[in-house]
Automatic annotation (TrEMBL):
Upper lineage: Archaea, Methanobacteriati, Methanobacteriota, Stenosarchaea group, Halobacteria
InterPro entries linked to this entry: UDG_Type-4/5, Uracil-DNA_glycosylase-like, Uracil-DNA_glycosylase-like_sf
Domain Uracil-DNA glycosylase-like positions: 30-174
Region (Disordered): 1-20
Protein name: Uracil-DNA glycosylase
Amino acid sequence: MENVTDRTSNPFGMRPPFQKHDPGNVPAVFGYGDANADFHLIGDHPGVHGGETTGIPFTEREASERLLDVFRAVGFVSDPASEPVFSNFFADYLHMCTLPGGRPPTADEYDELERYFDAELRAINAHILLPVGARATDHVLQEYTTQRRRIDLEMPALHATEIRGRGFMVVPILDPAEWEPGDRERLLERLEAILDSDYRQTKGVATRIG
């Protein structure tokens, strides 16, 4: 079913319990992009992946901008850089609220916002989930696949691989702040291969043909 909304930021009107944030920062970095996207990029929290003043996921950090440049190369992201346009592409965080000093959320704070993340993920209903970094990858594999117990969470090895999920294909991404030579190219090649194939969901299972 197609989502009908003209909102790019927070298309489903999420209203989480806001934490105290630093002056000049937005209270939360909401999900952003195409509400009917096939590709869903999932980060950790604003203190890691940015957006505290722009309100846009994966901005204001050199490493995160490097990651968006890969998606720009395959046609999902277009300028302006300060307010990018996402096409067939959506991005959000496990924990959307900004916190003082960019500190990481506590376990309870992650748990408090998990239902908002889950609701948004299911509303987008993308074919391809792209978790960035160990925490997001661990969460996605645990909650949306049956394979977490079989997988060693070694992000350099998991980077740009394909993992079958429950209704999704998961492509983990090593945090771009940790990329070594060749990691950008591995991700770009994986995305191009997926786009060149006939990917779709059949009876709730993400598949690729071709």
